[in-house]
Design goal:
Helix content: 55-70%
Organism: Gottfriedia luciferensis
Keywords: Membrane, Transmembrane, Transmembrane helix
Protein name: Energy-coupled thiamine transporter ThiT
Radius of gyration: 17 Å
Largest sheet: 2 strands, antiparallel
Shape: globular
Oligomer: single chain
Order of helices and strands: HEEHHHHHH
Distance between the termini: 38 Å
Length: about 190
């Protein structure tokens, strides 16, 4: 087995483990589930470092850890949407990994920041859509009387997903701008700091 494959597998395992640890240390927890935490950052980091496939694998591994440690079961399809699809889809951030690497390699921090925001948004939006659909189908009974279920699910899930997206994007911009080596980009000595 090549060293790079061992390194990749190790990094995926470590980031999935770090993600579940972050999930156990939320900044805020919503009443019926969902929380503002740093748990998406390690998945996004793998997606930006290695690409789409590896990001999806890391998200799937996080989903498996979520099921083992924090499962809230209503229905098998709810588990599929709220865990497997939702957390795996965070890896979609890897769609822009080449653009992030190229921007950082060229010293274009503004472009890198824009692509980091875009990638983080793509992964967060995909996860949000899964929770939104599950909220409509499986958690509609929690909606206050007279409130449309779709509006309730939209507001409830945005309540923790929007801050999670913003925090993830800001921290990843700071992290990758100051340490581009995290995505396999070596600083060019000729670039201004």
């Amino acid at each position: 087995m090549k060293t790079s494959k061992i390194q990749l597998m190790t990094e995926i395992a470590m980031c999935a483990a770090l993600a579940i640890i972050f999930d156990f240390l939320p900044l805020f927890t919503a009443p019926q589930g969902g929380s503002v935490s740093l748990s998406m950052i390690p998945v996004f980091l793998i997606a930006f470092r290695w690409g789409l496939k590896q990001g999806l694998i890391t998200g799937l591994l996080l989903a498996a850890l979520q099921i083992v440690t924090k499962l809230y079961f209503v229905h098998p399809i709810q588990v599929f949407l709220d865990y497997i699809v939702a957390f795996t889809s965070l890896g979609l951030a890897g769609l822009v990994y080449k653009q992030i690497k190229n921007s950082l390699a060229n010293g274009n921090k503004k472009s890198a920041a824009a692509y980091i925001i875009l990638g983080t948004f793509i992964g967060s939006l995909a996860r949000f859509i899964c929770h939104f659909i599950a909220g409509i189908v499986f958690y509609g009974s929690y909606a206050p009387k007279g409130t449309p279920v779709s509006l309730y699910s939209l507001v409830y899930n945005a309540w923790y997903m929007v801050p999670s997206f913003i925090i993830s994007a800001v921290l990843l911009i700071i992290l990758l701008s100051s340490a581009p080596v995290l995505v396999h980009v070596k600083k060019n000595r000729n670039q201004a700091a």
